[in-house]
Design brief:
This protein has about 350 residues and is of the alpha/beta class. It has 3 domains: about 80 residues, Beta Barrel (OB fold (Dihydrolipoamide Acetyltransferase, E2P)), CATH 2.40.50; about 160 residues, P-loop containing nucleotide triphosphate hydrolases (Rossmann fold), CATH 3.40.50; about 90 residues, Probable gtpase engc, domain 3 (Ribonucleotide Reductase Protein R1, domain 1). It contains 10 helices and 13 strands. It has a 5-stranded mixed barrel. Strands 6-7 form a two-stranded antiparallel ribbon. Strand 4 and strand 5 form a beta hairpin. The radius of gyration is 23 Å and the shape is globular. The termini are far apart. The structure holds guanosine-5'-triphosphate and zinc ion. Zinc ion binds next to helix 9. It is an enzyme of class 3 (hydrolase). Belongs to the TRAFAC class YlqF/YawG GTPase family. RsgA subfamily. Its cofactor is Zn(2+). Keywords: Coiled coil, Cytoplasm, GTP-binding, Hydrolase, Metal-binding, Nucleotide-binding, Ribosome biogenesis, RNA-binding, rRNA-binding, Zinc.
Length: about 350
């Protein structure tokens, strides 16, 4: 059993030890499909598992359920390739978002990621504010951020853009790539070493699937197709998965991670605590900081305590997150509608048969 290749860390040992004594096994979740999990326990041993009834009962929150990347303690059923998950080992990093339709529940999307590629294209998509947002998400997750600037072959002021990025985030490793002429791909190998887990963040169309296919040397993801209007995306596989790379690393791609650019208002507030610290002192609780009397935010900008640039970026993200939240709600409603319609159709069909 070679758990190291799957990303096992020594710090997990003490957690697993007592379980091991009781005959439990440990494996890593590589795929999730409607609460059915595929886990790996060696590089070529797969087991299909479910969570135990007790686990389900005790999980108070979606956050408590296993996700791709998790290390889980399970008991194998007889000698079969089946088992039951008993518990999850502590995550050293995780990406999560608010679940749709609920304002408080956290939904974890992927766990135990070492490196996250923040993919920005050097052409249309290039945007330092968005990069700032991804950096904050990466910091929150616990994974190490790496900036990947894609589609170099289409850009004719690469040097200028690199210098902008380096000024903006001097401490973050930055790579320029083009999948078309394989520029910069090999330099990404250092992150794809055996046992290392990677994930990607980036807007639609920046080339995440293309890069993933390139790194995995196979066509896992459908590339370039127009997104479906049902909001489910255009993946060849819609479930959440972890893919082994030929160099030994692993890459996690889940539909949810792709939509992680959806920021909740709460998250915006959380990441702009400097702005918040003034906003809470505004005279009116619903102050929009746009010329109202007793606005502390505007006063702070005037006195130089808060940069106008920073405030502008805060307002922009606020607006964006409200818009996205609205859109997400609409999408949920649409999904419900489609579901209901199908249900009624099937009832209708049954009726006709009688
Ligand atoms: N010229 C050029 N085109 C690229 C490069 N990488 C990706 N593309 C193209 O960009 C388009 C979008 O690429 P995808 O890989 O589907 O983008 P994505 O980020 O996975 O998009 P979503 O799945 O919507 O999140 C495709 O037409 C690719 O062929 C590159 O390095 N150079
Ligand atoms: Zn105000």
């Amino acid at each position: 059993m070679n758990l190291d290749l799957l990303g096992w860390r020594q710090e997990f040992d003490p957690y697993f030890y007592s379980y091991q004594q009781q005959g439990f096994q440990v494996g890593r979740v590589i795929e999730e499909q409607r609460n059915l999990y595929t886990i790996m326990m060696g590089t070529d041993t797969k087991v299909h598992v479910n969570v135990s009834g007790r686990f389900r009962y005790e999980a108070a929150n979606k956050r408590d359920f296993p996700v791709v990347g998790d290390w889980v303690i399970y008991r194998q059923v007889n000698q079969e390739e089946k088992g039951v998950i008993h518990s999850i080992l502590p995550r050293f990093s995780k990406f999560s978002r608010k679940s749709a339709g609920n304002t408080t529940e956290e939904q974890v999307l992927a766990a135990n990621i070492d490196t996250v590629f923040l993919v920005n294209s050097l052409i249309n998509d290039f945007n330092l504010r968005r990069l700032e947002r991804y950096l904050v998400m990466a910091r929150e997750s616990g994974a190490n951020p790496v900036i990947v600037l894609s589609k170099a072959d289409l850009c004719d002021d690469v040097e200028h853009k690199i210098s902008l990025v380096q000024q903006f985030a001097p401490a973050i490793p930055t790579h320029v790539i083009s999948v078309v002429n394989r520029q910069g791909i090999e330099a990404l190998d250092v992150y794809c070493q055996p046992g290392q887990t990677i994930a990607m963040l980036g807007s639609s169309g920046v080339g995440k699937s293309t890069l993933m296919n390139c790194l995995s040397e196979q066509d896992i993801m459908a590339v370039g197709a127009v997104r479906a209007h049902d909001g489910l995306g255009k993946h060849t596989t819609t479930h959440r998965q972890l893919v082994m790379l030929p160099r030994g690393g692993m890459i996690i791609d889940t539909p949810g991670m792709r939509e992680l650019q959806l920021w909740t208002n709460k998250q915006v507030d959380y990441n702009f605590q400097d702005v918040q610290s003034f906003a809470v002192r505004c005279k009116y609780r619903d102050c929009l900081h746009q010329g109202e009397a007793g606005c502390e935010v505007e006063r702070a900008i005037q006195s130089g305590q808060l940069s106008a640039e920073r405030f502008k970026s805060y307002m922009k993200l606020q607006k964006e997150s409200q818009h996205l939240e609205r859109k997400e709600n609409e999408r949920e409603q649409l999904k419900q509608k489609v579901k209901m319609k199908k249900l009624f159709q099937s009832i209708d069909r049954k009726r006709k048969r009688f």
